[in-house]
Design a protein that fits this description.
The protein is of the alpha+beta class. It has 27 helices and 17 strands. The strands form three sheets. A six-stranded antiparallel sheet has the order 2-3-1-9-8-10. Helix 2 (85-94) crosses helix 3. The radius of gyration is 25 Å and the shape is globular.
C-alpha cells in the first residue's frame, strides 16, 4: 500500500523545481509509505509523479516507484494491490512479455501495454488508485478501483491539474489556495462525511469509484508545439448501477443450499487471494458476522493460527471484545485483545484532523484507529469484514425501514406528528433507563443498544412522506444544514438525484444501492483507509471483491432478509465454521461513548472549539443552533453527540489547517 501524488502543468517549470514540488507533496504521505520514496518528472511535458511506498509484494528495490514500463512508453505511480497479478503475469508471459521484478506494479504496467488501459483495468481484481503517464500520447490517466476502496483527489489550480491520495498532498503545492467549499460543508453536517465527488476545498474533487479520468494537453491548432490548455474527461469502466439492475433481472434462481455453496466458494477464493503477502498478515475481529466470516475462511485455509486483533472498552454497551475472544478461541487463532481506557481513546482525538485530512465525523473513527494501531505492532497487512452490511442487507434500517413504512405510511400526517412528539417527550437517557429496567420483559428483537437515540431518531423518520424520504431522514443528521453553514447551498448528490438511482424492485434494494455507492466508499472505506494508513497498515476487504458484489446483487432479497433478520445467506456460510450461539446477539455499532465524554473529559476541548465568539469570528457557522444543542446536551435533556461531533471535527480540522 502506498501514497501517490503529482501534477501536470502548462507553466514552464524547471526540472529541479518539478522534483522539489512533487517531493514536497509525496513527503506529506510518508505514513502511507514509510519504506521508500521516488519522483519522476518530464520538464518538457510539465508532468511530475511522486510516490511513497509501503512494501508488501516484492519488498526489494524491484518494486520502486514511479516505475517505467519496459517498453518505455508508460510511467506509473500506483497505490493498491491487484490480487490476480500472478494469473495476469502468466498470461502476459505467454504473450511474449518479460519481467524484471516480482511486483504487481510491473504486471499492471505490462497489462496496460498489452491490452490498453481500459481493458487492462477491467481485468484487475483488487483495490487501487493510480496515475499513469503515456509519453507517446501526452496523456495522464487517473484511475480508481470499482468500489472506491483506495482514495484519489484531484483539482485545478490555475494552469495545473494536481492529484494525490490525500488532500494534504495537494495543499503542499505552493500555489494551492485553501478556500473552504461551504456547500460541501453542508453535506458534512447532513451525513457526517463529504460525499464524492465533493471535497472540503473549492475546485478539488474526489475521483468517483470505477472511473478513469483522462487529462490531455490541448493544442490550439496545427503547427503549434506548445499546449494551450488542459482538458479532463472521465469514463466509468464498471457500473454499480448496472450491476444492481442486472442482478434484479437475472436473479439467482437456485436453492438455499446452492446459494450457500456458491457464496462460500466465492468468499474462500476472495479471502485466499488477499492472504498473499511478503510481510506479516492478520485480521480485525470484532466477533460480528462479517469479521468472523473473514477470519473463519482465513483460518480454514491457513497452516498456522491466523493473527487476530480486537479492542474493548469497559463502558457498558461498547464492548465487543468478549465476543471476539470467544470466536477466536473456537477458530484457534492467535488472538490479541486490548482494553482501551477512556484516557487512551481521548488522547487520539486531537490527532484526528491530521489522520483524516478532511473533516470527517463518524465517531467509530476512534476505535478503528485504535485497532489499526494495535494490529500494526504485529503485522503489516490486515483483513477486514467491511462490506457485508451493504452486500447482504445487514443494517437495521433495511428491514426496519420497510416495516415502518408498511405500519405507518397509511397514517394521516397529523397522527404521525402527534406520535413523533410523544416519542420525544422523554429524553434519550430516560428511554435508556426504561429499556434497562424492563429488559427482561422486552422481546429479544426489541432489545436495542442506545435505545434512546434510536427512538428520538424514529420520531424524525416518521415525518417522511414516502419510503425514499424516510431513508433520507434516516441517514441525515443536521436536517437543514444551510441554516447552520453561512452563505451556503446544499449540492445535489447521488442520494438526492434520482436520475442516478438504480432501477431495483423496492425500498430495501434502493437503500442498499445508495449505501453501496455513497455511505460505503465515502464513510466506511474512508474511515478504514485513513485510520490504517496513519499507522502504515494495509487493510484488505475480501467482502468487496467485485465478483462477490455482483453475486450478492443476483441473490434475491429473501436470501438476505429472512424472518426479520438481515444477512441470512452470509450467516449460513459462517455457521459452517462457527456455532450459531457465538454469533447471535443484537447488532452493536463500532463506537465509543462520545455523548458522556462531551459532558465530561472532552467538555473543555469542545467548549473552546464552539465558543460563541470564535464561531462568529471564523464566520462559517451560525452559532445559535449549535450553542442551543450544546446546552441541551450538557443538561442531559437530549443526546446531540452526532450533530455536535460533525461541528467539532470541522472546527478541529480548521484549527489544524
Amino acid at each position: 500500500m502506498c501514497g501517490i501524488a503529482g501534477f501536470i502543468t502548462l507553466d514552464n517549470i524547471k526540472k529541479d523545481d518539478l522534483i522539489t514540488n512533487v517531493s514536497r507533496m509525496s513527503q506529506t504521505l510518508k505514513s502511507r509509505g514509510p519504506d521508500d520514496s521516488g519522483a519522476w518528472v518530464d520538464e518538457k511535458a510539465g508532468i511530475a509523479l511522486g510516490h511513497r511506498r509501503l512494501s508488501i509484494i516484492d519488498t526489494s528495490s524491484g518494486g520502486h516507484q514511479p516505475m517505467e514500463s519496459l517498453c518505455g512508453r508508460y510511467v506509473i505511480s500506483y497505490n493498491g494491490e491487484v490480487y490476480n497479478f500472478k494469473i495476469l503475469r502468466h498470461d502476459l508471459v505467454n504473450a511474449g512479455h518479460i519481467f524484471q521484478s516480482h511486483s504487481d506494479t510491473e504486471v499492471v504496467l505490462t497489462a496496460i501495454t498489452e491490452w490498453g488501459i481500459e481493458n487492462a483495468v477491467k481485468r484487475f481484481i483488487g483495490m487501487f488508485a493510480f496515475a499513469l503517464w503515456d509519453k507517446k500520447e501526452c496523456m495522464l490517466y487517473l484511475v480508481r478501483d470499482r468500489l472506491g476502496i483506495k482514495p484519489l483527489y484531484y483539482g485545478m489550480i490555475e494552469n495545473t491539474i494536481v492529484f494525490g491520495s490525500e488532500l494534504k498532498a495537494l495543499t503542499a503545492l505552493p500555489s494551492f489556495r485553501k478556500e473552504i467549499n461551504r456547500n460541501a460543508l453542508t453535506l458534512m453536517l447532513r451525513y457526517n462525511y463529504i460525499p464524492a465527488p465533493y471535497s472540503i476545498y473549492e475546485n478539488v474533487y474526489k475521483l468517483l469509484p470505477a472511473t478513469i479520468a483522462t487529462i490531455r494537453h490541448r493544442y490550439p491548432g496545427a503547427g503549434r508545439s506548445s499546449p494551450e490548455s488542459l482538458s479532463l474527461e472521465t469514463k466509468v469502466y464498471w457500473s454499480a448501477k448496472q450491476i444492481a439492475e442486472d442482478g434484479a433481472i437475472n436473479s439467482f434462481d437456485h436453492s438455499d443450499k446452492e446459494a450457500v455453496k456458491e457464496l462460500d466458494s466465492l468468499l474462500r477464493k476472495s479471502v485466499k487471494s488477499r492472504m498473499i503477502s511478503d510481510v506479516p498478515l492478520g485480521a480485525f475481529l470484532s466477533g460480528g458476522i462479517d469479521s468472523s466470516t473473514v477470519v473463519a475462511l482465513m483460518q480454514a485455509q491457513s497452516e498456522r493460527p491466523v493473527k487476530t486483533f480486537s479492542i474493548g472498552f469497559n463502558e457498558d454497551g461498547y464492548d465487543e471484545a468478549k465476543y471476539a475472544k470467544a470466536v477466536a478461541k473456537h477458530l484457534g487463532t492467535d488472538h490479541t485483545e486490548l482494553y482501551v481506557t477512556s484516557e487512551e481513546a481521548l488522547a487520539v482525538i486531537p490527532q484526528l484532523p491530521v489522520y483524516y485530512d478532511e473533516p470527517f465525523a463518524d465517531v467509530s473513527q476512534i476505535p478503528t484507529f485504535l485497532v489499526s494501531r494495535l494490529a500494526r505492532k504485529h503485522v503489516t497487512v490486515s483483513l477486514s469484514g467491511d462490506g457485508g452490511d451493504e452486500n447482504f442487507s445487514g443494517y437495521e434500517r433495511y428491514s426496519f425501514g420497510k416495516s415502518l413504512w408498511q405500519k405507518t405510511g397509511w397514517m394521516p400526517a397529523s397522527v404521525q406528528k402527534s406520535f413523533a412528539i410523544m416519542l420525544r417527550t422523554l429524553s434519550s437517557e430516560t428511554w435508556d433507563k426504561l429499556f434497562s429496567r424492563f429488559s427482561m420483559v422486552i422481546p429479544k428483537h426489541l432489545r436495542l443498544t442506545t435505545p434512546g437515540d434510536k427512538i428520538h431518531k424514529l420520531s424524525y423518520i416518521l415525518g417522511g412522506k414516502s419510503p425514499d424520504e424516510m431513508y433520507y431522514r434516516t441517514i441525515s443528521f443536521w436536517k437543514e444544514p444551510t441554516k447552520i453553514v453561512r452563505n451556503s447551498s446544499e449540492p445535489r448528490t447521488i442520494i438526492t438525484d434520482k436520475s442516478q438511482w438504480a432501477k431495483v424492485p423496492g425500498m430495501t434494494e434502493r437503500m442498499m444501492f445508495l449505501d453501496l455507492v455513497s455511505y460505503l466508499p465515502d464513510d466506511i472505506l474512508t474511515k478504514v483507509d485513513r485510520a490504517s494508513m496513519a499507522v502504515s497498515l494495509e487493510v484488505r476487504v475480501p467482502l468487496l471483491d467485485h465478483r462477490v458484489v455482483e453475486f450478492a446483487w443476483k441473490v434475491p432479497l429473501t436470501m438476505k432478509i429472512r424472518n426479520g433478520q438481515g444477512k441470512w445467506l452470509l450467516r449460513q456460510v459462517l455457521y459452517q465454521y462457527v456455532p450459531k450461539e457465538l454469533i447471535e446477539r443484537p447488532k452493536m455499532g463500532f463506537g465509543v461513548p462520545i455523548d458522556t465524554w462531551l459532558r465530561g473529559p472532552l467538555r473543555g476541548w469542545a467548549e473552546s472549539l464552539i465558543d460563541k465568539g470564535r464561531l462568529q469570528q471564523e464566520g462559517y457557522f451560525n452559532y445559535e443552533p449549535i450553542r442551543e444543542k450544546w446546552n441541551e446536551h450538557l443538561s442531559g435533556k437530549r443526546n446531540w453527540q452526532y450533530y455536535l461531533w460533525s461541528i467539532l471535527m470541522f472546527q478541529a480540522w480548521l484549527e489544524n489547517n
